[in-house]
Amino acid sequence: MSAGELVAGAFRRLAPRPYARARVVLFPHGGGSASYYRPWLTAAPWDVEFLAVQYPGREDRFAEPVPADMRGLVDTLAVDLPLAGPPTPTVLFGHSMGAVVAYEVARRLTAAGDPPAALVVSGHPAPHLARPGQVHLGSDDELIEELRRTEATHLDILDDPVLIQAFLPVIRSDYRLSETYRPLPGVRLRAPVTVLYGDRDPEVTVAEATGWHDATDGACELHVFPGGHFYLDEHRDAVVELLTARARAISATSAVPWPSTP
């Protein structure tokens, strides 16, 4: 499955949207890739562009080394994003590990004077409540069992000894980034934050989800969906609709002109 058109560095355009009023940037979960978001196109509108992030070490970036830490990953993404198209009101969305990656990119952009219009996070505790972990230190078998428990990877990959051995180093690195993450030094976020999570998600509690209000000086609201950690798969259309509504709302108040001719 194609991850989409390369637009700049790590960013892939899922489909052309020449008349887009705003854009949504999608950050995958640990072990995930840009193509995870490809099916979202079935619900994506004509006037909002969806970009997906391709982390190093997977799909068309398989040969690239994975970052040593969260700072290294965020530094690269924050540089690439402004190059991914003309100035457009932007919503950042991240699920699981992608939530804190998006959060740190949002802070870095804020420090550079180009903050996102909004941040939407999913399936992850507030940054200051991030859970430490040691899955990345376990054996291959223990790591595979964790992937089965969280349903973070397709079972056909887990059952293929060749494929799983190829992907385990990347997955282990993502777990290391996530499990050792602590908020990076820097400016405080000012953008409004919307928090999504599944009501049966073992990876985040209500208190950990509502804790995101301490991560920004902007407004913060919570949306709860039926389901576990990957409730997204069951409620894809509803999540895309929510992201579209956020993007349209900010575009309506933006000073960026919208083209009136092709």
Assign the CATH topology: Rossmann fold
Can you name the CATH architecture?
A: 3-Layer(aba) Sandwich
Question: What spatial order of strands do you see in the largest sheet?
Answer: 1-2-4-3-5-6-7-8
Provide the structure class: alpha/beta
Relative strand content: 15-25%
Strand tally, please?
A: 8
Instruction: Provide the domain count.
Output: 1
Instruction: Provide the CATH top-level class.
Output: Alpha Beta
| Helix and strand run | EEEEHEHEHHHEHEH
What does this structure look like?
The protein is an alpha/beta fold. It is 31% helix and 16% strand. It has helices spanning 70-80, 97-111, 140-150, 155-158, 161-179, 206-210, 236-252; strands at residues 5-8, 11-13, 22-27, 48-53, 90-95, 118-122, 193-198, 220-225. An eight-stranded mixed β-sheet has the order 1-2-4-3-5-6-7-8. The longest helix has 19 residues, at 161-179. The chain is globular. It starts with a strand and ends in a 10-residue tail after the last helix.
Question: How are the SSEs placed, and which strands pair?
Answer:
Elements: E1 5-8, E2 11-13, E3 22-27, E4 48-53, H1 70-80, E5 90-95, H2 97-111, E6 118-122, H3 140-150, H4 155-158, H5 161-179, E7 193-198, H6 206-210, E8 220-225, H7 236-252
Parallel strand pairs: 3-4, 3-5, 5-6, 6-7, 7-8
Antiparallel strand pairs: 1-2, 2-4
Helix pairs in contact: 1-2
List keywords for this structure.
eight-stranded mixed β-sheet; Thioesterase; Rossmann fold; 262 residues; Pyochelin biosynthetic protein PchC; TEII; 31% helix; alpha/beta; 16% strand
Task: Summarize this entry quickly.
The chain has helices spanning 70-80, 97-111, 140-150, 155-158, 161-179, 206-210, 236-252; strands at residues 5-8, 11-13, 22-27, 48-53, 90-95, 118-122, 193-198, 220-225.
